[in-house]
Amino acid sequence: MCGDVERVFKRRETHQVRCGNVVIGGDSPVSVQTMTKTDTRDVGSTLAQVNECAAAGADIVRVAVPDMEAAEALRKIKAGAMCPIVADIHFDHNLAIAAILAGADKIRVNPGNIGGPQKLLAVAERARERGTAIRIGINGGSVERDILEKHGGPVPEALVESAERALGYLEDSGTGNLVISLKSSGVRATVKAYTLMAEKTRWPFHIGITEAGPGVRGVVKSAVGISSLLTLGLGDTLRVSLTGSPLDEVKAGRDILQAAEVAFFGPEIISCPTCGRTQVNLIPVAEGVAARLRDIRAPLKVAIMGCPVNGPGEAKEADVGVACGRDGGILFMRGKVLGRVPEEEMIDALVRLAHEAAK
Ligand code: SF4
Predict the structure, then answer these.
(1) Cα(335) to centroid of ligand 1, in Å?
(2) If you measure from the C-alpha of residue 265 to the centroid of ligand 1, how many angstroms do you get, rounded to a whole number?
(3) pLDDT in tens, 137-182
(4) Are 289 and 347 in contact (CB under 8 A)?
(5) What region, left, alpha or beta, does residue 177 occupy, with left being phi > 0 and alpha being psi -120 to 50 degrees?
(6) Which of 66, 97, 99, 240 has its CA at a distance of 20 to 30 angstroms from the CA of residue 77?
(7) Measured from the CA of 311, which atom of ligand 1 is nearest?
(8) Ligand 1 centroid to residue 326 C-alpha, Å
(9) Ligand 1 atom at minimum distance from 310 CA
(10) Domains along the chain?
(11) Ligand 1 center to residue 273 CA distance, Å?
(12) C-alpha angle 128/15/160, rounded to 5°?
């Protein structure tokens, strides 16, 4: 059984691809990406959003390049960006070439809409000269017509054939530094597509569920899709696509990686859901503690429990914890009871303890 579980989680072996100072694939950590939602031609706003995302934990940020002005703006964005920049290109291969010349660390092209193999190869030539990585970004909505006709629609097999065709052109021309994505808005189709593709190539995968939607719904759909792939050992860089802020995308991406036990970004907060037995106002305590422990990088479990029923047991299991009662909480550290604190001092006391335990 144990062997089966390990096999399931074993990460697929891939080549390594360099995107600025981030390595994608091999045994490098699964990187978190997002995409700016500003007009790329507005350098000030775009750069501010790029750096806000990088400060929030994005490893790589993608920007849309819909015209030459946006491609030119990349030069300034690159100069001030705190993380590698990917240029997102559709329809016009000249934009891809301009983005490469402007210093993009990676370009995302969609072979189904870039204008045919010759144009794709012209882009690849420039990318090779500059050491720019290329993501072959296949989308269900833009698979080549003959492939769609053969498969009867944008089914996973069609996405894979489209990627294989582009890969064939690029590899034959000696282009390396490739990343592949096969995005469909359905979880099952996406998982099937990546699983099929994994048998055909060693290039790393960019994973995500495209157009996942807004709010909780989008996060849940992305988490189900991304974690299914991670469980199969597939995925070297990811983006959670939300109809919302890129900062939420970054946070969700990191939370998915941590929940899937693929990466660690900070202490694990184990807080009870609260119920009719809760004896203190637990929600602000849990939120307050979580917000103040973001600087901790040690693998720490912090328990915040709402009543004396399960509280002491759970709190004892964690590195530090508090089990709340009617008049405050009992603090624990690595199984030992440290004493009682009044409710208004609980956050400070637990934060202090967590920092001590993290040393
Ligand atoms: S720990 Fe107590 S308050 Fe929290 S959910 Fe369980 S029973 Fe309810």
Answers:
(1) 19
(2) 27
(3) 998 888 999 999 999 999 999 999 999 999 999 999 999 999 999 9
(4) yes
(5) left
(6) 240
(7) 1
(8) 13
(9) 1
(10) 2-259 (3.20.20.20), 268-358 (3.30.413.10)
(11) 7
(12) 85
Judged by average pLDDT, the poorest of 51-60, 192-201, 208-217, 341-350 is 208-217
Q: Which atom of ligand 1 is nearest to the CA of 307?
A: 2
d(CA 203, CA 332): 47
Strands 22-24 and 206-207: unpaired
Half-sphere CA count of 343, side-chain side, radius 13 A: 14
Query: Which residue is associated with the tokens 């508090």?
Result: 322
> Residues enclosing ligand 1, CB less than 6 A?
272-275, 277-278, 305-307, 309-311
Tens digit of each residue's pLDDT (9 = 90 or more) over 13-55 = 999 999 999 999 999 999 999 999 999 999 999 999 999 999 9
DSSP alpha helix (H) spans, 186-324: 187-198, 215-231, 246-259, 282-292, 311-317
- The residues with which 170 forms a beta bridge, in sequence order, are none
Ligand 1 center to 348 CA (angstroms): 22
| pLDDT band at 6; cut points 50, 70, 90 | low
Q: Which residues of 82-105 are buried (b: 16+ CB within 10 A; e: fewer)?
A: ebbbbbbbbebbebbbbbbbbbbb
